[in-house]
Design goal:
The complex is a heterodimer of chains A (157) and B (747). Chain A folds into two domains: 76 residues, Beta-grasp domain (Ubiquitin-like (UB roll)); 68 residues, [2Fe-2S]-binding domain (DNA polymerase, domain 1). Helices cover 32% and strands 16% of the residues of chain A. Chain A is built from five helices and five strands, in the order E-E-H-E-E-E-H-H-H-H. Chain A has a five-stranded mixed sheet with strand order 2-1-5-3-4, sandwiched between helices. In chain A, helix 2 packs across helix 5. The longest helix of chain A has 14 residues. Chain A starts with a strand and ends with a helix. With 747 residues, chain B is an alpha+beta fold. Helix content of chain B is 28%, strand content 25%. In chain B, the strands form six sheets. A seven-stranded mixed sheet of chain B has the order 4-6-2-13-10-11-12, with helices on both faces. A six-stranded mixed sheet of chain B has the order 8-16-15-14-9-28, with helices on both faces. A five-stranded mixed sheet of chain B has the order 1-27-26-25-17, sandwiched between helices. In chain B, helix 10 packs parallel to helix 11. The longest helix of chain B is centred in the last third of the chain and has 28 residues. In chain B, 59% of the residues are buried. The chains are: A alpha+beta (157), B alpha+beta (747). Chains A and B meet through helix 2, helix 3, helix 4 and helix 5 of A and helix 1 and helix 18 of B. The structure holds FE2/S2 (inorganic) cluster (2 copies). The site of one FE2/S2 (inorganic) cluster has 12 residues of chain A, from loops. The site of one FE2/S2 (inorganic) cluster (FES) has 12 residues of chain A, from loops.
């Protein structure tokens, strides 16, 4: 008897089929099954945000979602943020504002910030800090990350 | 956002074309698109996944280990214990990798399992049966130094500065002593003497990427390790030593690294993965969980300090005495030496006596964390200096300025300071608008503090290859933990007169570049800077020689400026670097520049902070209202990444001051080994961190560079404490200053 379940979902706009064990998290599926390693694991218990993906329009910690729960969903990951036209303005702003040092937290911050700016095009500093409170960065002290998001908001306006 | 002032200032003393500008980092695009490969992102074909069985007890004798059930679980490929080290002798290093007869902390590895996936490996370790005889444990230096304290290491004796050993069993691994002048005379000259005691909790570096290793013990006997490490060459050496194989049999490939702050220098579980790989013939990957990271990687020590300062009425410090005891964790090697060196470093104190103790306790072996030893020391001395200033009715910055170290002042360990920027940092603080802006409300306070770190130098090896289109390939061995590829490339570009974007840096494996000591001690921009300057100068000389041979002239009459080679005697002889590069293969062959050496003279760094807080009188919660960080970095190669280091270090210091600690259970185990319970600062907890880069050029570096990464973590501990005093009238002498600890006193 197979211990794996067939799951069909949409990832970054493409239909994707995969097999996973019921105990595997979406993060594990992305990384270990689909070899999409842009989403990172920092804690595996929902406290660092390095694994942030967008699921049906909401940002979630993919380590807290089961792979089987992705069935029929639309998942957007860091790999889908840049397009064939180039980097997303948030990615460009992170580069120009030096908003990353080691960069391990960066995919999570970019996916989370993108969702914020899509919902609220002109957030205050306070609002950005609250929105990003689920994402840990140990390198930057957040200053340049917050500035990058404000900069991106301005450029996207 | 509107600011009436400039949030990030560079007090520049020398301008260059490329150095000091802010290009986009070379590895940036890969890191904002998710394409960059970190250690855990590496997958080898046929790879197995390993998990490590760890001790649930802080201190226990291992009576037996039974791995039978684990071995017979379907999907398990191999199990190893310390027995698999074979005939290799017991050493601290091997015992740290896998315990044999005793476990010394909760989290101490006992066995490793390799299986076809990590869930099966996880299940298998739960099937290993270990019989323990629990022993009493010690969690702090106070407990460990008590008479009749439980002893961790039977062979341990206290070593003094002369290498003499104590006679009896002990938990004190080392006693260091620094002495200058006449301590008693100094105190006799003082009008005011203040002596205070301080305690700080064990804290963790808190990098977001857990340690990880993929190891393949190849059939030809060679070991290949893919990892995220600050020191690929150090890991190569240490892994060879632990496994008892020649260093040339080990190749380490550094993947991108997700933070380290000093901690990612240890071999951790890589020898376990190596033994599993040898047993199975497959590559084996081992990635720590976050809890394993807290419980068994190398945190930085809790400490106890007693410091006594004598001062005259006019504010001259006459005498300083200190007792420092730092946790080493389960094996000797705390950064108490760093603490002793940094403690009095900002001040010219003629009479000093410092005693430092390295104390083993039942916690994981401690490791480096950003200016290791210095923050604990800064907390003590800067709290006292603040108190002295208040008692004497002096401005705290003026008191510091009066006593500040300068070139020629002797450090506590006897070393004379070269040109340093202690005075310049204090002066920048004094003249910054933050210092003169009044606080706005009740329960607010402003604290200031300064701090020191030695900075590091060491080995670096770099080769530069000229491309036919005038670009340069730069090959180096320094793990890039925060933008060093960019700064090294910028220094090469500066020498050659080309844009930073024309240099393409790669950090390569240990077989492909000369020895390069690790990314630590704030050493990279210093050592790689000197080496890349030489390597680029080598390229330049070869280009001049090549042009000379093409033109049939003497290379001494040629020069290269802004990417153009020309003759000083004949104005018609002129060729761009790009055009010459295109001709190399036809005019004598490719050009490769190289340099490799052990650098010296990192210069030392001083930092200072002004921090405003508001303390909630009911709950004791401290809010950071405003923070300005000042630091002498010699020369900021890429100012944005210098600011980033200062901001990141500052926030780690704030976390250390207010929230972070290893919360220990009665039984000696850590109670809060998750990011939920080990509370690091969030974006929401902080204001912008303003910066002032002070540039006092280091005369021992071609661009004046001093190390940048570390010192900014030290002053925030006392600056926050001094600000809390300003807000509440209470001097906190224990870290972290949690809401409860403040509220308990204010009520
Ligand atoms: S890995 Fe998912 S929140 Fe940390
Ligand atoms: S850049 Fe390293 S954790 Fe954010």
């Amino acid at each position: 008897m197979s211990t794996k379940t067939h799951v069909q979902t949409k990832i970054n706009g493409e239909t994707v089929d995969f097999l996973c064990e019921p105990r595997q998290s979406l993060l594990e599926v992305l990384r270990d099954v689909l070899q999409m390693t842009g989403s990172k694991e920092g804690c595996n218990d929902g406290n660092c945000g390095a694994c942030t993906v967008n699921m049906d329009g909401r940002i979630v910690d993919s380590c807290l979602v089961l792979g089987v729960e992705a069935a029929g969903s639309e998942i957007n990951t860091i790999e889908g943020v840049a397009t064939s036209d180039g980097l997303h303005p948030i990615q460009q702003a992170f580069l120009e504002n030096a908003a990353l040092q080691c960069g391990i937290c960066t995919p999570g911050f970019i996916v989370a910030s993108k969702a914020l700016l899509e919902a609220e095009p002109n957030p205050s500093e306070e609002r950005i800090r609250l929105w990003l409170a689920g994402n840990l960065c140990r390198c930057t002290g957040y200053d340049k990350i917050v500035r990058a998001v404000m900069d991106a908001a301005q450029k996207m306006a | 956002m509107t600011t009436a002032y400039e949030p990030n200032v560079v007090l520049s003393t020398k301008e260059y074309d490329v150095v000091g500008t802010r290009p986009i980092r070379h590895d940036g695009v890969d890191k904002v698109t998710g394409a960059a490969k970190y250690g855990a992102d590496f997958y080898a074909s046929n790879m197995l996944f390993a998990k490590v069985l760890r001790s649930p007890h802080a201190h226990a004798r291992i009576k037996s280990i039974d791995t039978t059930d684990a071995e017979s679980l379907e999907g398990v490929r191999a199990v190893v214990t310390s027995k698999d080290f074979g005939n290799l002798p017991w050493t601290y290093e091997r015992d740290q990798v896998m315990a044999s007869h005793k476990v010394l902390y909760k989290g101490h590895p006992i066995a490793g399992v390799a299986a076809i996936n990590s869930h099966i490996a996880d299940h298998a370790i739960s099937l290993i049966k270990v019989e323990y005889e629990c022993l009493a444990s010690v969690a702090t230096v106070h407990e460990a130094m008590k008479e009749n304290a439980p002893i961790l290491l039977d062979d341990l004796r206290t070593e003094d500065d002369l290498g003499n050993n104590s006679e009896s069993n002990t938990n004190v691994a080392k006693h260091i002593q620094y002495s200058t002048g006449d301590i008693e005379k100094g105190f006799n000259q003082a009008d005011l003497i203040v002596e205070r005691e301080f305690n700080t909790a064990t804290v963790h570096q808190g990098y977001i990427e857990p340690s990880n290793f993929t190891v393949n013990w190849n059939q030809d006997g060679r070991l290949h390790i893919w990892l995220s490490s600050q020191g690929p060459f150090e890991i190569r050496g240490d892994a060879a030593k632990v496994l008892g194989i020649p260093v040339s049999n080990v190749k380490v490939t550094p993947m991108e690294i997700g933070g380290g702050f000093g901690a990612k220098f240890s071999v951790f579980s890589s020898p376990i993965a190596a033994l599993l790989s040898k047993k199975t013939g497959h590559p084996v990957k081992v990635v720590n969980t976050r809890t394993e990271e807290f419980e068994s990687s190398t945190p930085t020590p809790g400490s106890y300090l007693k410091v006594k300062i004598g001062i005259t009425k006019s504010g001259q410090i006459t005498s300083g005495q200190a007792y420092l005891a730092y946790e080493a964790g389960a094996y000797p090697g705390s950064p108490v030496g760093g603490g002793a060196n940094c403690l009095f470093a900002p001040y010219d104190i003629p009479n000093q006596l410092i005693d430092g103790y390295d104390v083993v306790v039942n916690k994981p072996k401690t490791g480096a964390y950003r200016a290791p030893g210095s923050p604990n020391a800064a907390f003590a001395i800067e709290s006292i200096v603040d108190e002295l200033a208040e008692k004497l009715g002096m401005d705290p910055l003026n008191l510091r300025l009066m006593n500040a170290s300068k070139s020629g002042t002797r450090r506590s360990d006897g070393v004379k300071f070269p040109r340093i920027g202690c005075i310049e940092v204090i002066e920048a603080m004094k003249s910054h608008p933050h210092y003169s802006t009044p606080l706005k409300g009740p329960n607010q306070g402003r604290g200031i503090a300064i701090g020191y770190w030695m900075n590091g130098a060491g080995e670096s090896s770099i080769t530069l290859t000229v491309h036919p289109d005038g670009h340069i390939n730069l090959v180096e061995g320094s793990a890039d933990i925060g933008g060093s590829r960019a700064s090294i490339s910028m220094m090469a570009a500066e020498v050659l007169g080309i844009p930073a974007e024309s240099v393409h840096p790669s950090v390569v494996d240990t077989d492909s570049v000369g020895y390069t000591s690790g990314t630590g001690g704030s050493s990279v921009t210093h050592k790689a800077g000197i080496v890349v300057y030489q390597a680029a100068s080598d390229v330049k000389l070869q280009l001049l020689d090549r042009a000379a041979s093409i033109w049939g002239t003497d290379s001494n009459s040629l020069e290269m400026n802004n990417g153009v080679i020309s003759s000083t005697s004949n104005h018609n002889l002129k060729i761009s670097f790009e055009d010459l590069a295109a001709q190399l293969n036809d005019t004598g062959g490719p050009i490769v520049g190289r340099a490799a050496l052990t650098t010296r003279g990192p210069g030392g760094a001083f930092a200072g902070h002004i921090i405003d807080v508001e303390v909630d009188p009911e709950t004791g919660k401290v809010a950071i209202l405003r923070c300005t960080a000042f630091q002498d970095c010699g020369k900021a190669i890429h100012p944005s990444y210098v600011e980033g280091q200062m901001q990141g270090g500052t926030v780690q210091g704030i976390g250390w001051a207010l929230n972070e600690e290893y919360f220990m259970n009665e039984d000696g185990s850590m109670a809060n080994g998750t990011f939920l319970d080990y509370r690091m600062p969030l974006a929401l907890d902080l204001p912008m961190i303003d910066t002032v880069i002070v540039e006092v050029a280091n005369p021992d570096h071609p661009f004046g560079v001093r190390g940048v990464g570390e010192v900014s973590i030290a002053p925030p501990l006392p600056a926050v404490a001094n600000a809390v005093y300003g807000a509440t009238g209470i001097r906190m002498n224990r870290l972290p200053m949690t809401p409860a600890s403040i509220a308990n006193i204010t009520k």
